[in-house]
Amino acid sequence: MRVDSRVQDLSIIKMRPTLVRLVRVVPRSKVDPALRPIPEPVRSDVPRPSLIEVLLKRKEEAGADYPPNIRIEALKAKTALRGLPRDARKTLAAMLKEH
Fold first, then answer.
1. How many Å apart are CA 3 and CA 61, to the nearest integer?
2. pTM for the complete prediction?
3. What pLDDT was estimated at residue 36?
4. What are the start-end ranges of the H helices in the chain?
5. Residue 66 CB-density burial (10 A; 0-12 exposed, 13-18 middle, 19+ buried)
6. Are 51 and 98 in contact (CB under 8 A)?
7. What burial letters (b/e) apply to 30-46, b meaning 16+ CB within 10 Å?
8. Is 63 left (phi over 0), alpha (psi -120 to 50) or beta?
9. pLDDT of residue 1 exceeding 70
10. Which residues of 49-62 are buried (b: 16+ CB within 10 A; e: fewer)?
11. How far apart are CA 49 and CA 55, in angstroms?
């Protein structure tokens, strides 16, 4: 058996599995309904918290462990943009709007 001169020791050669070998798609009909998690229904009458509220809650829960380099600022009121030119107001309002 001839081995490449660069590879003297065969123990360093590793077989890496492909994605096709690792992943197996199972049809939903084959999974027991008791094992399938039922997604919670989305209710439109219950307001969802904004991203800023979620981040502030995480910061409060983490306490001193929260990274000091992450700063969360609340959304400014529209009255703060009143003295600016119209074009600048629109640009800043779009930047401040939460997506």
1. 58
2. 0.37
3. 78
4. 19-22, 51-62, 86-96
5. middle
6. yes
7. eeeeeeeeeeeeeeeee
8. left
9. no
10. eeeeeeeeeeeeee
11. 10
- At residue 99, does pLDDT exceed 50? no
pLDDT for residue 60: 92
**Which two structure tokens, joined as six digits, stand for 77?**
């009121």
In angstroms, the CA 6 to CA 51 distance is: 54
DSSP state for residue 5 in the 8-state scheme? T
pLDDT in tens, 34-88: 887 888 887 778 788 888 889 889 999 998 898 888 888 766 666 777 888 888 8
Q: Locate 66 and state its tokens.
A: 């929260």
Tokens of 53: 């509220």
Structure tokens at 65: 């462990």
